[in-house]
Amino acid sequence: MEFVIVGLYIFFLSFILLYALTELNLTFAYLRDRRKNRGVQEKSFDNDEGKPMVTIQLPVYNELYVIERLIDVVANFDWPIEKLEIQVLDDSNDETVDIIANKVKEWSRKGIDITHVIRPDREGFKAGALAYGMDLLRGEYIAIFDADFVPGSDFLNRTIPYFADDRIGVVQTRWGYLNRDYSILTKLQAFALDAHFKIEQRGRNSGGHFINFNGTAGIWRKTTIEDAGGWQSDTLTEDLDLSYRAQLKGWKFQYLEDVESPAELPVTMTALKSQQFRWSKGAAECTRKNLGKVLIKRGIGMRTKINATFHLLNSFLFICVISLVMLSIPAMLIINQFPQFDHVFRNSLSFFFISTIILGIIYFVSNKSPEDNFIVAFFKFILFFPIFLALTMGIGLYNSIGVVEGYLGKKSPFVRTPKFNVTTKSDSLKANKYVISSFNPMAILEFLLVLYAGYGIYVALEFENYYMLGFLVMIAIGFSYTSFYTLKHAAAAK
User: Fold this and answer.
1) Is 148 a catalytic residue?
2) What global pTM score does this model have?
3) What does the mean pLDDT of the chain come to?
4) Per the residue annotation, which of 90, 91, 146, 194 is the catalytic one?
5) Quick check: is 113 catalytic?
6) Which of 90, 146, 194, 239 is catalytic?
């Protein structure tokens, strides 16, 4: 049994290290591309005559706090009115329906081609709504925005010109954050997402590797969607799934870091967990569906296949972390009983230390602005990065359950991330109908993991196994944080 535990421990640590090295490679690609394209002029139209017909799809489900703002923003896009169509794909079953109906009438009277699309049922959830709208739209290009986004009025002028290249099937823009400074929770999310939207998206794109449409704040060529098989609802991340199917068909994606589309970050732990569970499980489902196709596809380079493998398997990291937590105490007991294994665990744990350093470099690069003072930025980062790692580990249990379900093919409904229109510290969550106030049993399991990690800390001190101590302390802090704020945000809603 001790050999099995040692083998699993080394396997999970090795995967984390390989993932970190892949991310480091993307960081180098990002930095090279940023230097190479510094000062490059954006593409633009000479006049309105060459502008194509564009449809804007707004998939909505119970978004009474933010939907009016979004409709007003896209209706004011700087684009010829005769070449703009707006579809509000409304699956709502609350007051949102009436709010949208009134807003659609308001803009229709002003000459905007806007329709309130209500389908017979919610089959397929967001993917089903987008597919339903595909049969009704007139646009050659389709821009998609989730309800909490606030894109700039020049969004289409800055993105559509890239479709002059007939190989481009998607143009994706970078997310911004309306409420980054609302709380430590939103700051941590922005910290993580910046790495994705800078290092990962731009790094993969510059290297010619597969990237993904992020579900919103991007534009599809209609023929690309059709050629790739259309929107499909057999995964919880229909955006990632369609992205891979389109790129397997040979379509190219264009990522624009300099075009920012601000949005609202989840402000409660329950909302964040719901979002992360869906993303993690959906990624696992897409791995099951598409990874094999990528690996056997001819004409795709080995480096691209490796990048795609770790891209699709990114949510497997949560299983690695939770497994390492559960194996930590048995590992220390083995070391105490069989001292010959001590050097094996020490050497393998060096993988975790190296991975942490690599990830630190990646997140520092992604979060440091060129105008920031390096010394100040570095010390702020040193204080913030451990908190980020602890939170990431803290939501690992919930996410790893989703990943296992995804790999096993267990289906679950699409649970949307509620939008609260909470952007400043003065905004309150009280009386907000989308805040879940019921007790989540997952908090009990998270608290039990706090106790388990605490016992692990005791064992580490008892056996003087100090090189496992830091990991266990971080786990205890992370799960304490998530379980505490899950309960706190639920109580605040009452």
Assistant:
1) no
2) 0.93
3) 92
4) 91
5) no
6) 239
